[in-house]
Design a protein that fits this description.
5-stranded antiparallel beta sheet, 3-stranded antiparallel beta sheet, disordered N terminus, about 30% helix
């Protein structure tokens, strides 16, 4: 089956967002234990109420973006925000469904406005990668700006990862880009709270 890219996962991998295929496929296996900070609790420290909130918000995201439903995106345009602990929790839960993960030992942390990612890639490009990523816009489209990409601690060209991820993001959001009502979006990372807000006329 064709693999469907989940932008939320690329945000994590950014961030931000990879995905889930129609066959219960998930790009991550099991996140490594994140380092606790003063900014927010790690996923394991979320209360039952916080976990429930994360699941509700993810369902709204899924029903909007995964189903490529522009009307749902418009109706919920102020609801697409997650804390990093919530994202780590969501991926920990979704990863349990994976049969052939593309990533294992995934860790996402906030690094002063950038997302710091550490993961073991099992497919596409194999090896242990670390990098920083930021979501940027160009001509109303979303792109990942990847920097400090390292393979097993050695610097490698950022294009190795940025090109395939940005192709995936473009494909993921194509249903919005093609809608005449779409006017772009804003993305913010405020103390580990990631928010994507699409704009429409």
């Amino acid at each position: 089956m064709k693999k469907k890219i989940n932008f939320l996962a690329i945000l994590l991998l950014a961030g931000l967002i990879m995905p889930a295929a129609a066959s219960a496929f998930w790009f991550w296996n099991k996140p490594a234990a994140p380092v606790a900070t003063d900014k927010a609790p790690i996923a394991a420290e979320l209360t039952a109420a916080q976990k429930n909130q994360a699941e509700v918000k993810y369902k709204i995201w899924s029903n909007s973006f995964e189903k490529r439903d522009v009307a749902a995106v418009i109706a919920n345009q102020n609801m697409f925000w997650f804390t990093i602990p919530e994202l780590n929790y969501i991926f920990a839960q979704e990863t349990k469904k994976a049969k052939k993960p593309i990533l294992t030992d995934f860790t996402l942390t906030d690094n002063d406005g950038s997302l710091a990612v550490s993961a073991n890639f099992q497919q596409i490009i194999k090896g242990h990668f670390t990098f920083n990523a930021q979501i940027v816009t160009n001509d109303k489209r979303a792109y990942l700006n990847i920097s400090k990409l390292k393979l097993y601690g050695l610097p490698v060209p950022a294009a190795w990862l940025s090109k395939p991820l940005n192709r995936a993001i473009n494909d993921y959001f194509s249903f919005l880009y093609e809608d005449e009502r779409y006017q772009g979006f804003s993305f913010s990372d405020n103390s580990g709270v990631l928010k994507l807000k699409p704009e429409f006329k």
